[in-house]
Amino acid sequence: MILDTTKNQLAADSALPNYDTAVGIHPKRHVPQAPIKYDFTGWAQSSMFLMPPRGFPIQQPLYRITVELDLNPFLPVSHVTKVFRCGDQENELVAEFSFALNHKRAVLSMGDTVTRLSNALFSVNSTPKHFNWILGHRLHWDCREMLGNGSPLCVCYLPPSSTAGQYEGVKIASFIPPPPDASPPLPDATITIFPQGHQLMDHIIVSALVVERMLTR
């Protein structure tokens, strides 16, 4: 009887969805074979969400993003952006970064690392729309192309193994923020994750938000 109860409990536990299933991110053995486009919801009540496509069976956000003011009297006034993971690990802080309003100070906290933002993201050849991300995973963001509505098209690459004059490697994401100079209502930002990017979602989302802040700073 005890053995049967244990087996039943194990079966019930195994039937529960894991985090990957709940938020629509496939584990490594089920990597999507096509790009998936996610939408950032409109800004409301000091937060926004990253949502899966409408056709997904589970309409549950993947991430929640908040922004608040840091009024520490001993530091420059800053905007602090926090990225939380949703799903089974609701409200787990993935990363936070702050940009001072009238100062060059910028700080990033992700995992066990707290550092100045310049130690995680820097421009390529001093180009204001071309960045390398070197925290944890090396990513390359190229935002030099503009769409017809004024939105930048930011493409994320895994850098090639050989860097002999070549920056473009494997394309893993494309990010389209709203046009900064357009009249409201603004279109929602979108991010498309390619098959090899799903295992790097945390770093792609955080670095995309940092890049967007750099573009509009």
From TrEMBL:
InterPro entries per the UniProt record, alphabetical: DUF6593
Domain DUF6593 stretches: 60-214
Highest rank taxon of the organism: Eukaryota
Name this polypeptide is given: DUF6593 domain-containing protein
Source species of the chain: Hebeloma cylindrosporum
